[in-house]
Automatic annotation (TrEMBL):
Alphabetical list of InterPro entries matching this protein: Aminotransferase_I/II_large, PyrdxlP-dep_Trfase, PyrdxlP-dep_Trfase_major, PyrdxlP-dep_Trfase_small
UniProt KW Acetylation keyword: no
Domain of life: Bacteria
Keywords from the named record: Aminotransferase, Transferase
Protein's UniProt name: Aminotransferase
Domain Aminotransferase class I/classII large, residue spans: 58-352
Amino acid sequence: MQFSNRTGSQQLNPIALSQAKALNRGDGIRSLNDSNPTRHGLGLPSLGVYAAEPRGPLPAREALATFLCQRGQAVSSEHLYLLNSTSQAYSWLLKLLCNPSDIVLEPRPGYPLIESIARLESVLTMPYALHYDGSWFLDIAHIRSLLEGPQGNRIRAIILINPNNPTGSYIHPQERARLIELCRKHGIAIIADEVFFDYPLDPIPGRQRFAGESAVLTFALDGLSKMLAAPQVKLGWIHVSGPDQEVEEAEHRLDMIADDYLPLSQIIADQIPDLLQLVHRQSTIVRNRCIENLQVLRTLLEEPGCPVSLLKAEGGWNVLLRFPAVIDENELITYLIDHYGYTGQPGYFFDMASNGYLALSLLPAPEEFVRGVRAILCSVEAILAL
């Protein structure tokens, strides 16, 4: 596994080496330039003494690990990194794995956030294809051709969205096995974004998280904002797993990045145990809303002569609608704005391969959801009649 040179030399300087030896002997060390005011009686008494923990405060990581283990994930607090969001997690991992102009593979269709973050990190993205034939599937042959192609030696990771947004497709078991085989062969890491994993709509048998994968270096991303349906709760995490030696090296370098950023406030960390208590209730409410709206949507689209169809979605909060490709996507959105006061995200926002797609959220209250769907159907019929 190749890591970026952004994390500098892994050799300890003489001072750091002496400090490490002293600590290993059990000797106490005091710093002559200690600028932590809380250790000198100068901080806010209510906040106590501050001790920097780059991966996030240990009690918070332990609480999160316990919660995740209770949900069936094999997670240890020592392999968790707490940070402000999964977006920040992407940024850290691109720093860890990529030098400027290195490449990560990302799914298309897919959410444009990844390409935007990569651009900020001076990292290039290369799309790999998802295809639809009644359900979504990865083009494994395409991924293999990219890894074996002329730029394959610059590819450092593959990003998997499990389930994907906006397609709502999980990574299927046979796809997972072949992806792991390719990653091991070519020495690249997996970055698995699983923030929507616990929102199944029409799930495939054998769906599985990548969190805890041991065969290849894997960074699984998740966060409370989706679990709680609370975007303002900015708390994400990275779970590192894989072969022991690669995990050790990755975490050593990731610790350096985390130490530079120290992103997580102790005030937020202290709230994690209480927030975790709300997850089951909140995620159940959201999951039920999405499933109920999906059932209503299917009923509406089954009306005789309906010109709009639904692409199969296996999980998440969104679905893709297909309408006649003779209608330009911009034309449909403009018509919705002018006649019904609705806007939306057309397929080309997500790099769909052709015209005629519209993303639809399953989150609105039932009455509003039905109004929105009927506005789409009426708009499509009106444009077809022009």
